[in-house]
Amino acid sequence: MKIAVLPGDGIGPEIVAEAIKILEVLRAEGISLELDVAPVGGAAVDQTGDPLPPSTLTLCEQADAVLFGAIGGPRYDTLPREQRPERGLLRLRKAMDLFANLRPAQVFPELVAASTLRPEVVSGLDILIVRELTGDIYFGEPRGIRTNGAGEREGFNTMVYSESEIRRVAHWGFQAAMRRQRRLCSVDKMNVLECTQLWRDVVTEIAPEYPEVTLSHMLVDNAAMQLVRHPRQFDVIVTGNLFGDILSDEASMLTGSIGMLPSASLNARGQGLYEPIHGSAPDIAGQGKANPLAQILSVAMMFRYSLHRSDLAERIEEAVRSVLAQGIRTADIAQAGEGIVSTGQMGDAVATALRAH
Ligand code: NAI
Ligand code: MG
């Protein structure tokens, strides 16, 4: 199994180092893993002037999976748009056609108190958002800022989805629902936007292929409200790029800790990019404070979706749960009075738990 490892900037290299400890435990058991490290984001700009050097892209395209840390930082904020670290990630997603973005939002029983919502609302929460990642208003043409007939500036973007783009991500939603509680909620704004009328039509057309899945539709404004009112009503949510961007950030905060949440971005060939949902956290970089669990849980997703070893995914997730049950906490998930461990100590604890299971 060939894994491209892209640590990136800020806390990226610190948390990726902890993920590698987990991979080393599995390697010691005889699992064959080839790890190739390459620069991306600001780290790559510093070395080559390009946030996604051709050699890094080639490595990713030839790998079974990409393990990605985080990118960005104040040092790069003044660069032209094309050279900014974020462009490197966007180009990588597009080049590898990573159209299905899976973002689980799960509340671990030990961390219920970390949520800003009441425990009875979030305890037991386990949602998966499937967000389309390579289309929609983010990529539609034409777009720009122009002067209109009245001599006033106007900004415009185009919301566009082809039938095939909707169909392939909707299949992902149904298939994910089949592996879970078999409930799929498709989110759109069909009462106002034609593009999302097509979305609803196509999702409805393929539903008969999945008779075991209960399909519902919800308008995005209602979905935003329902996510905080009664989030446990959802199992899998499938939606477009723009609505998914917003709803997945909302859902992630139900769990109370950005340092806990992994993600997967997949293409039709089964390749995937696995990264925590948070950024490079420049405010805590280099201090050993970052929580590596989102990165470690991203490794679990990598085994599940690209490397076809769900057994290893489950062992890693179990190791994380056992570390939380032991009361081991980085600063971001600690309650007042609880002891705090460093990034490295958290990674060591998960590695030890993994060896024991
Ligand atoms: P951020 O997610 O990096 O940080 C937000 C807050 O959460 C900060 O207070 C940070 O310390 C904390 N935090 C994040 N991850 C944590 C972890 N693992 N453990 C403990 N605390 C953690 O978002 P921010 O500050 O808006 O952006 C910083 C940089 O990251 C920017 O340059 C931004 O463009 C970039 N970014 C990169 C992403 C990526 O690589 N996919 C995603 C989001 C932002
Ligand atoms: Mg976002």
From TrEMBL:
Q: Which molecular-function annotations from GO does this UniProt entry contain? A: 3-isopropylmalate dehydrogenase activity; magnesium ion binding; NAD binding
Q: Which reaction does it catalyse?
A: (2R,3S)-3-isopropylmalate + NAD(+) = 4-methyl-2-oxopentanoate + CO2 + NADH
Identify the InterPro entries for this entry.
Answer: IsoCit/isopropylmalate_DH_CS (IPR019818), IsoPropMal-DH-like_dom (IPR024084), Isopropylmalate_DH (IPR004429)
Necessary cofactors: Mg(2+); Mn(2+)
GO cellular component term, pick one: cytosol
Q: Which UniProt keywords apply?
A: Amino-acid biosynthesis, Branched-chain amino acid biosynthesis, Cytoplasm, Leucine biosynthesis, Magnesium, Manganese, Metal-binding, NAD, Oxidoreductase
Share an example GO biological-process annotation for this protein: L-leucine biosynthetic process
Q: State the free-text cofactor note.
A: Binds 1 Mg(2+) or Mn(2+) ion per subunit.
Please state where this protein is localized. Answer: Cytoplasm
Keyword DNA damage (UniProt): no
Q: Where is this site: Important for catalysis?
A: Y138, K189
Q: Subunit structure, per the record?
A: Homodimer.
The free-text function statement in the UniProt record for this protein reads: Catalyzes the oxidation of 3-carboxy-2-hydroxy-4-methylpentanoate (3-isopropylmalate) to 3-carboxy-4-methyl-2-oxopentanoate. The product decarboxylates to 4-methyl-2 oxopentanoate.
Listed name of the protein: 3-isopropylmalate dehydrogenase
* Organism annotation: Ferrovum myxofaciens
Q: Which gene encodes it?
A: leuB
